[in-house]
Amino acid sequence: MAGRTFERPLRAAVNPEVRGIWLVRVLGAYVLLQFSWWAYLLASSGGARERWMVLGEGSVFAALLILGLMRLERNFRQERMRLARERNLLLGVTHELKTPLASVQLGVDSLRRLQLSEEDRAAVLENMQNGVQDLGYRVEEMLVATRLQRQPDLQASTFDWGDMLVEAVGRVSGVQRDRIQVHRIEGPQELRGDRALWVLSASNLIENALKYSRGTVGVRAEVIGSDAVLEVCDEGEGIPKADRESAKAPFVRLKEEGSGTGLGLHLVAQTALLHSAQMDMRDLDPVGFAVRVVWPQGR
Question: pTM above 0.85?
C-alpha cells in the first residue's frame, strides 16, 4: 500500500463555492456596518434611555446575525465537501468501470474480426468473463456503500471465518493471486455476522495491498480466543499516519494512482463499526504495512 496521498474533499472545491462563501461574508459585514451606523444616529439624537434601548436591541440583533452567518457559512462548507466527494466518486466510478468494459469490448472485437484457434478463443472468453466479473464486483461495492449510508444494518447469518477469506481471495484476478499468501486455521470457525460485508471488506484490503505494493501480500483469518482476527500485510510504504483517519471517509481517493472509487477502506471501517470490531493500521518493521481488524465475539 505504498505512497498514498489522499485528495482532501475541502481542497477540491471549485471557485464558485469559494466565491459564494466570500459573498456571504461581505453581505454580513455590510449589514453590520449599516446597522451600526443607523444605531449610532438613533442613539445620538435621543436621550440615555434611547441609547440603552438601541444598545440592547442592537446587541441581540448583531449576535443573531453573526450566528446566522456562521451557520450559513458552515452549510456552504458542508455542501462544498459533499460536491467534492461526489466528483471524486464519479471520477472513481468512471475509471473502475472503464477497465472491465474495455476488456469485454476488446474480446467482442477480437471474436468478430479475427479467426482464432480454439485455444485463443477460450483465452479471450476467459478474459471477457473476468471483465464482467470485475464489473459486477465494482457495482456491488457501490451498492453496498449506498445501502450502508441510507440504512446501516446487518444481514446476519452463520458462516465460516476461513471460508470467508477463501471467497475474498477468489475475487482477485488470477495473475495477482500468485502474490497472495493465505494463512488460515484448518477446521470450522463458525461465526455469526454479515458474511457479504466481511467478504467485501477482506477483498478490498487485499486489492489495495496488491495495487499499492510489490512483493508478497499476506492475509490471515483466524479465531484467537474470543476474537476473530482479519489481517492483511504487504511490503509497501503504507498510508501516512496523518491520513489514516481521513482514509476511512467515503469517496476519498488515492491521488497518486487516480483510480478507485474511494470506498474500499470506508467499507472496511463501516463493517468493523457495525460488528463492534476494532480496525487498526500500522507500519511493519523494517518495511511494510498492515491493516488488522479484531472482532470480539459474544457482543
Answer: no
Does residue 119 fall inside a structural domain? Answer: yes
Q: Is residue 141 part of a domain?
A: yes
For residue 265, tell me if it sits in a domain: yes
Pairing relationship of beta strands 157-160 and 227-234 according to DSSP bridges = unpaired
**137 lies in the same domain as 175:** no
CB atoms within 10 A of CB 285: 6
Q: Could you read off the pLDDT of 224-282 as tens digits, one per residue?
A: 888 999 999 999 888 888 888 888 877 666 554 445 556 778 889 989 999 999 999 99
Beta-ladder partners of 278:
294
DSSP 92: H
**Which triple of cell numbers denotes residue 62?**
448583531
C-alpha to C-alpha distance for 3 and 81, rounded to whole angstroms: 24
Q: Are residues 246 and 227 in the same domain?
A: yes
pLDDT of res. 46:
63
Domain that holds residue 111: 99-150
Closest among 57, 56, 60, 65 to 33, alpha carbons compared:
65
Q: How many domains does the chain have?
A: 3
- 80 and 108 share one domain: no
Q: Which residue has the cell 495473475?
A: 175
Evaluate whether residue 245 is within a structural domain.
yes
What are the cell numbers at 11? 481542497
217, 265: one domain: yes
- Same domain? 119 vs 145: yes
Strand partners for 231: 220, 292
Q: What would the DSSP string read from start to end of 31-77? A: HHHHHHHHHHHHHHHS-HHHHHHHHHHHHHHHHHHHHHHHHHHHHHH
Burial call 120-152: b when 16+ CB within 10 Å, e when fewer: eeeebeeebebbeebbebbeebbebbeebeeee
